[in-house]
Amino acid sequence: MRTVNRLRVRLRNLLSGQRGDHRLREEMEAHLAMQTEENIRTGMTPAEARRQARLKFGVVEAMREQYHAEEGLPLLENLVHDVRYALRQLRKSPGFTLTAVLTLALGIGALITVTIWTNAVLFDPWPQVRDVRSLRFIDASFMGGAGWSVHYDQMEFLRRHSHSFTELTAFASSELNLNSANESPQVIEGGIVSSNYFHLLGVRPELGRFFEPSSDARDYGAHDDVVLSDALWRSRFGGDRSEVGRIISINQHPFTVIGIAPKGFLGVFGGLAEAAWVPLSSLRDLSPDAPPDPLRHYGLQVAVRLRSGVRGGTAQAELHTLAREYEATQHQSYDGWTLNLRNCAHFERGLFYGISEELPLLAGASALLMVLVCLNIASLLGQHAARRRRETAIRAALGAAPRRIASQVLVETGILAGMGALAGWIAGLGLSRTLYLMLPGFGFPLAFNLRNDWRVDTVAAGIAVVVTLACGLAPLRQALRVSQQEALHEGGAAVAGAPRKRRGQRALLGLQMGICFIVLVCCGLLTRTALNIYSRNPGFNRRAMLTATLGLSRAGYSPGRAEVFLTELLERLRHAPGVAAVTITTHLPMGDNGSNNTRGFSVPGYVPSKGEDMDVVTDYDGPDFFHAMGIGVLEGRDFAVSDTPGSPKVAVINLAMVHRCWPKGNALGRNIVVDGIERQVVGVVPNFMYQSPDDTDPSPVVFLPYLQAPTGYGYAILALRSRTTADALTGELRQAVAALDRTLPLEDVRTLEQVTDGQYQGYRVPAELLGVYAIASVMVAMMGLYAVMAYSVIERHREFALRIALGSTRQSIFSLVLRGSSGVAISGVVTGGLGSVAAVRLLRSMLFGVGPFDPASYFAAAALLLLTVFVSGLVPARRAASVDPMQALRSE
Amino acid sequence: MKQRKDVQQGTLALMVLKTLDVLGPLHGYGIARRIEQISGDLLFVNQGTLYPVLLRLEQEGAVASDWGPSENNRRARFYRLTRAGHKLLETEKRDWEQTAAIIARFFEVKAEDLV
Question: Which domain holds residue B76?
Answer without folding.
Answer: 9-114
